[in-house]
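Purpose: get a first structural picture of the assembly so the mutagenesis plan has something to point at.
Setup: two entries, given in the order below. No constraints added.
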Amino acid sequence: MQDMNQPNHDSALIVNEGIEQPPIVNPYIGNFYKKNRAKSLTADDYVEGILAGNITTLSQAITLVESNRHDHRVIAMEILERCQSHGKESMRIGITGVPGAGKSTFIEAFGGMVTSLGHKLAVLAIDPSSERSKGSILGDKTRMETLCTDPNAFIRPSPSGGSLGGVARKTRESIVLCEAAGFDVIFIETVGVGQSETTVHSMSDFFLLLMLAGAGDELQGIKRGIMEMSDLIAITKADGSNIDKATLARALYSNALHLFPPSESGWVPTAMTSSSVTKAGLKDILDKIEEYFAMAKSNGYYYKKRKEQSRFWMYETINEGLRDRFFDNEHIQSKLSRYEEDVMEGRLGSFAAAAELLDIYKKNI
Amino acid sequence: MQDMNQPNHDSALIVNEGIEQPPIVNPYIGNFYKKNRAKSLTADDYVEGILAGNITTLSQAITLVESNRHDHRVIAMEILERCQSHGKESMRIGITGVPGAGKSTFIEAFGGMVTSLGHKLAVLAIDPSSERSKGSILGDKTRMETLCTDPNAFIRPSPSGGSLGGVARKTRESIVLCEAAGFDVIFIETVGVGQSETTVHSMSDFFLLLMLAGAGDELQGIKRGIMEMSDLIAITKADGSNIDKATLARALYSNALHLFPPSESGWVPTAMTSSSVTKAGLKDILDKIEEYFAMAKSNGYYYKKRKEQSRFWMYETINEGLRDRFFDNEHIQSKLSRYEEDVMEGRLGSFAAAAELLDIYKKNI
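Result (structure tokens, whole complex):
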């Protein structure tokens, strides 16, 4: 085990016995790698390290929950159960944005302010398309240079590969571990495509949408329905010659938000401006977010939503488990695409096709 | 069989061998009831009658697809397969609205105009909460007096009971039958609560949202995200002293709609005003809808969306089938609520609970 007092922020290099690792390119850690391979941590080791706030152990535990190997799942479950009860008062903030809104620079600037105020911040991500080998870690690290070296920040790139459900499970479990390690503010970032925003929404307390003044083409990059899900819209890049446009956009969005159905929390979403360069507006955004948490905690919505999310994820995991077994069945796999084609071309009804496939599955379970 | 040339619009009174019926209160149809009970229609009879545009047979066939009895499902599937290829160019219009927007009167007025222009209109509904015994049919009928007696309109209340998925399946199958019977415009109405709007959205080509000027409290009645799904917002009750308010609301919503992410179809949603009393604006709304269909057909989106909806419903039905089997399992039923409670109270992780329940199911399948 490395020196426990030295936080290791390079989670890509954290290794763990038996877990598939990205190729190690740093020749200096060869020893470390070997030493760790030889030693397998027990659940007690993990829990103890996490609760002590040890970053190395936290990273290793996240690597463990990201593994799909059965023996890893067993120990991961034990760790999660024992870490479960922490993080009851944390702020889980989902963040997405239109392409070009400068999500990474915003997180860098906003996150730096959050830690400077005494919070411990974990930045997680959900990006089903990410693959470690494609260098997304390096990308994140380069774009968040200051936050990466901030002792009160922990940045973990999106778990690689797998279905959105799989990635979501890993991220949600990572939240539990981070909170047990003392991180009280969690950013859950999404790339903003397809279903990933709704997934982030289902595991965060507050949803922040980053928009650009002028919008237009950038709006193509986000899913419809996201605006109505947002608790706060931040118009980024409100600096220099862009200030007037951003202020106008802020007014437009504020007006539009008032036309939306109210959220169940009783919160009235609003629009604000910010600049990751001048830092203008960042503190106001944090104040607004803290106002939300104060309100949602006092009216009980915060706790209610957390409970509902827990239930949601139980059912979601069951459904995903059932689907996985079905679609992994070799009889289904050999016939599915033909059925799908017949349905799409109108040769076969959707319900008839489904009924036949369910029958095939039942006979070959 | 009754006289085939006399359309029978009172679908509640249509009877069919072996299918559970609402109590028959009209003493004059005693004979009819008996005669039909004795005679069971074959799939050929149904298909022939439907394709000939016979309303009585259409109603009977819908009653058949609404049945969950296995032998009914078998014959229903055959009918559906043979009716499947029709309705390729129809207009399926999903309609929802805030409470108080006057959905029924709008459908009555707008539907009357649609049929007066030579269309054949079927009005279907998705309302998982409806129950026949509670008189929802009578409710609909009373609120749509003129449309009920219109020979070119066919009104069918929401199938009763069951899960949203079950109700959705029945409505989607009813669309297929109505289109095969020559109805080229289909309204699919929803009560606007919970998930039913997204369900309607997944089976319609165009989504119309009815709103009120002033909004406010009425907005509580619709789900967030619906506005961004809408292809057209109609501000109803734009008559008398309300005209100015409605015109202002139209402008506000039009501006807000421009801030939304564009829809994949290339369509730019807009807001319009209408009055079900003076009929002002109704023709403009229809023109706008037809403009959408002309565009979506020429750029291919209409056909693409239909194909995707068919695929969606195949997968959705498979997923629902898998869920039904799981949650109907007696071992799951006896343990589920305890797990759910443990998860919601934070005593057990969502994923661990799901994994345990899936294990229990696997052992007791």
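Chain B is about 50% helix and 10% strand.
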